[in-house]
């Protein structure tokens, strides 16, 4: 439990949440364009998404222990290559390796392990696991800032991370064991869903549900939220540094964003038992919209901190409530497939950093990007508020069940 949680903590701290900080120092020294820097972030996200089918395959062939060990080595190779980078092409390869290493370590292998290690308390253990990963996002930018400040070199940071990744791989090799041998890919994909699947069957088929307007709207909301979050991870440090002349406030803002996002996700599950999740989703989108608009106009680091607090809360509210709505609207029996389809749609988020970098190169500022993102969030908030409805499982006309009733009543997960 400790080792796999450490793995998620480590990959979160060293990739998505802290890469923006390292990129700021690398761009300044190597003279890269903002578009090139954004492309490296997109390579990380794209590699992570496209390699997600790989862990179940490897777990079936060589076991979870060796899969996670291999992930540590792949991650270390990406960090080592990054430490030797001089050209942007090499860094694209490095971030691609980081994305593949991320997938091999978390979260798919660990969720399977936790579900089979703790069959009676898997939901609680998986919740602790994701909490550990979220905390990595809080401390990651601060750790990177401390290493770069102490050593004066981003190359030292990448080298230290490479050494730590090898150590993590060795820990997985020593301490991880499969309680249940992986026999099929489906076995991995459905890990942790056993308790929900004993609920009454959903009246929906996956094909019918994915064509429903409510599912499309939830997919759209998740895609826009993930695009904005990914873009902020890539450019926030650079933007705040342009305001204050120092990268440290950007690292603090990034950590605040992760901290408030983690807290909000933790309480949204409990709130959704008392408040209509649709209202929470709309509130989260509105908060993110307001925060992004604020970032467009603020000229101080303090304004960036306020943005981070608002945006983190909105992110937590909207992301978890969208998942709760998928469960309530379409039932637990197909919830895993519907979440997987919605998550697949969020792969388009990798275009955010690249587009933001290109706009910054053309305009000299990230402010136009923030304005566009605020408009997108406002549009999604309005469409969600006025068009999202609890769907009916038949093409035949049926009475409206209302906003706050699920067709297949299910207990709402707490995390």
From TrEMBL:
Molecular function per GO: transmembrane transporter activity
Protein keywords: Membrane, Transmembrane, Transmembrane helix
Domain annotation Major facilitator superfamily (MFS) profile: ranges: 1-392
Matching InterPro entries: MFS (IPR011701), MFS_dom (IPR020846), MFS_trans_sf (IPR036259), Proton-linked_MCT (IPR050327)
Membrane-spanning segments: 30-50, 62-82, 88-114, 126-150, 156-176, 215-236, 248-267, 279-299, 305-327, 339-360, 366-388
Protein name, entry field: MFS transporter
